[in-house]
Design brief:
It is a single chain. With 482 residues, this protein is mostly helical. It is built from 16 helices and no strands. It is 79% helix and 0% strand. It starts with 17 loop residues before the first helix and ends in a 22-residue tail after the last helix.
Length: 482
C-alpha cells in the first residue's frame, strides 16, 4: 500500500534569519522602531511622575526624586554593563544559530543580576542611603523625602534589573517587539500604581514621594515574575535552559564582565563629566537662567534626538553582532552605516525644529522669561548641529559594542565627553570670562570629537577579529551549566 502521508513541514527557525540573510534596511528598522517607542514611553513616565509629585507633594518632592534618581541611575548604568556583555554574547550566538549557548548566557546574566541586587545592592544601599544623600548635598527637607524613596528602590530593584536584562536579551536575539510590549505594560501599571500610592485611594493612604518608588518596584516586580515564568516555560526567542544544572557558570560570568565592564565604566565617566559640566554652568553670571535652559534644552528637548538614536544604537549592535556571528562581517559593517543614516535623518528633522522654532519649544515648558528664553534659544541652535554628531556617534558606538569592542567606546567617551568639553571650559574660564555660549560650544566640540573617533575606530575594522566563546573547561562544569 502506497504511503500518501504528507512530509513533515520543516521546523521553523527559532531566530529571525532575515537579520542575517534578508535586506539590511528592514532588519535595522525592525529592531530600531520598537526600542524608540519604549524609550519615549519610559521618558514620558518620568515626566508624569514629576508632575504628580510636584502637584501633590511640592517642589521638595520633585527635588527628592531627582536627587534619588541621580544615585540610582549610576547603579543601574553599572549593572546594565553586564547586560551589554550579555547582549554581545547573545547576538553572536543567535547569529550562529547556537540556541544552547544563547540560553546559557541569558540564565547566567539573570543569576548575576539577582545575586548582585539581593546580596549587594539591597543591604549596602539601605544602610548607605543617608551617606549617599549627604554626598550629593541634599538639604534636610529634600533628604527627608528622598531617604524612603531611595531605600525602597535599593531593596526591591531586582525587578527592574530583570526587565533590563530580558529586554537586552530579546533584542539581541532579534525580537524587539516583546520588550516594547512589556515596557508599555510596565509603564501603564506603574502610572496607575503611582496615582494611587502617591495621593491615596479609599483605604490606601497617601504615601507621597515614597509612593512613587513603591509603584515603580511593584510594577517592575510583577513584570519580572511574569518574565521568569515565560522564560521557564519557553516560547520566546530566549529561555532558561532545562536539565543542565542551575548553579553559576563562572566562565560565562567572567565573559559578561569582560565585555560589559568597559560599558559600565563608560557610563559612570559620562555621568561624572555631566556633573562637572553642571558645576561650570553654576559658576556663570547668569547661572540660574543657564541651568534652567540646560535642564529643558539638553535633558528634555535634546531627547527628541537621543531617544531615537539610542534605539538605533541597540539595533546596530544586535544586527552587527548577529551578522558577525553568522560569519558575515561585511553585512555587519553595512548595517551600522545604514543605522547611522537613519539616525542622521531623524536628528536633522528634530534639529530643524530647534533651529527654526526654539522659543516656541521653550514656551511649552513655561520658559518665557527673556533672559532664560535667549540663553535657551542659543543652546537649541547649537544642539541642532550637535544632534547630527551624537546621532551618528551613538550608532557607531552600537556597532562597536555589538561586535564585542566595548573598550574603544570607553576611551572615546572619556576623551570626547570629559576631557574635551571640560578642558575647553576650564581654559576659557582661566583666560577670561566663561559665558553660556562657551559651554554650549564645548558640548558641540565634544560631540563632534566623539562622532569622528567612533566612525574612524569602527571603519578600522578590528572588531572583525574579536572572538567570543563560552565553552566551560571540564573542571568547571560541575557547578554550572553543561
Amino acid at each position: 500500500m502506497t504511503d500518501i502521508s504528507q512530509p513533515a513541514a520543516p521546523e521553523r527557525p527559532r531566530y529571525d534569519r532575515s537579520i542575517v540573510e534578508g535586506p539590511l534596511r528592514s532588519a535595522v528598522w525592525k529592531l530600531a522602531w520598537p526600542t524608540m517607542i519604549t524609550n519615549i514611553i519610559g521618558g514620558l513616565q518620568g515626566i508624569v511622575d514629576h508632575v504628580l509629585v510636584g502637584h501633590l507633594v511640592g517642589f521638595t518632592g520633585n527635588a527628592a526624586i531627582g536627587v534619588a534618581w541621580q544615585i540610582i541611575i549610576v547603579v543601574i548604568i553599572f549593572i546594565n554593563s553586564l547586560f551589554t556583555g550579555m547582549s554581545v554574547l547573545v547576538a553572536r550566538f543567535a547569529g550562529a544559530g547556537e540556541e544552547a549557548k544563547v540560553d546559557r548566557t541569558v540564565y547566567q546574566a539573570f543569576l548575576t543580576a539577582i545575586g548582585i541586587s539581593l546580596l549587594v545592592l539591597a543591604p549596602l544601599g539601605y544602610f548607605l542611603s543617608p551617606s549617599l544623600l549627604d554626598l550629593v548635598n541634599a538639604t534636610p527637607e529634600v533628604k527627608a523625602e528622598a531617604l524612603p524613596f531611595l531605600r525602597i528602590m535599593f531593596l526591591f530593584i531586582s525587578g527592574m534589573l530583570v526587565f533590563y536584562m530580558l529586554s537586552g536579551a530579546l533584542r539581541s536575539a532579534g525580537d524587539a517587539r516583546t520588550p516594547m510590549v512589556l515596557g508599555i505594560a510596565m509603564t501603564v501599571l506603574n502610572l496607575v500604581l503611582n496615582v494611587i500610592l502617591i495621593r491615596g485611594l479609599g483605604p490606601i493612604p497617601a504615601f507621597g514621594t515614597a509612593g512613587s518608588a513603591m509603584g515603580t518596584v511593584i510594577a517592575s516586580g510583577l513584570l519580572a515574575i511574569y518574565s521568569m515564568v515565560r522564560l521557564w516555560r519557553g516560547g520566546w526567542v530566549v529561555s532558561f535552559p532545562r536539565g543542565q544544572g542551575w548553579g553559576p557558570d563562572w566562565a560565562i560570568i567572567r565573559s559578561l564582565f569582560r565585555f560589559g565592564l568597559p560599558s559600565g565604566i563608560q557610563g559612570i565617566a559620562m555621568n561624572v563629566g555631566g556633573v562637572l559640566m553642571l558645576a561650570f554652568i553654576g559658576s556663570l553670571a547668569q547661572s540660574a537662567a543657564a541651568q534652567a535652559a540646560f535642564a529643558v534644552g539638553y535633558t528634555q528637548l535634546f531627547s527628541l534626538i537621543t531617544w531615537p538614536a539610542i534605539g538605533l544604537m541597540g539595533a546596530a549592535a544586535a544586527v552587527a553582532g548577529q551578522n558577525l556571528g553568522a560569519g558575515r562581517p561585511d553585512r555587519a559593517a553595512k548595517s551600522v552605516h545604514i543605522a547611522a543614516r537613519y539616525g542622521l535623518g531623524g536628528a536633522a528633522l528634530a534639529g530643524s525644529l530647534f533651529l527654526l522654532f526654539p522659543r516656541q519649544l521653550l514656551a511649552i515648558f513655561g520658559m518665557n522669561e527673556p533672559a532664560v528664553a535667549e540663553i535657551g534659544a542659543q543652546l537649541l541652535r547649537v544642539l541642532s548641529v550637535s544632534g547630527l554628531f551624537i546621532a551618528a556617534a551613538l550608532t557607531y558606538t552600537g556597532g562597536l559594542q555589538g561586535t564585542g569592542d566595548t573598550k574603544s567606546p570607553l576611551y572615546i567617551s572619556i576623551v570626547s565627553q570629559v576631557i574635551v568639553p571640560l578642558g575647553i571650559c576650564f581654559a576659557i574660564q582661566w583666560m577670561g570670562t566663561l559665558d553660556p555660549i562657551d559651554i554650549w560650544m564645548a558640548i558641540l566640540a565634544g560631540h563632534a570629537v566623539r562622532c569622528a573617533l567612533s566612525v574612524v575606530r569602527f571603519n578600522q575594522g578590528r572588531w572583525r577579529n574579536i572572538e567570543v566563546e563560552i565553552d566551560t573547561p571540564p573542571g568547571a562544569q560541575r557547578g554550572g551549566l553543561a
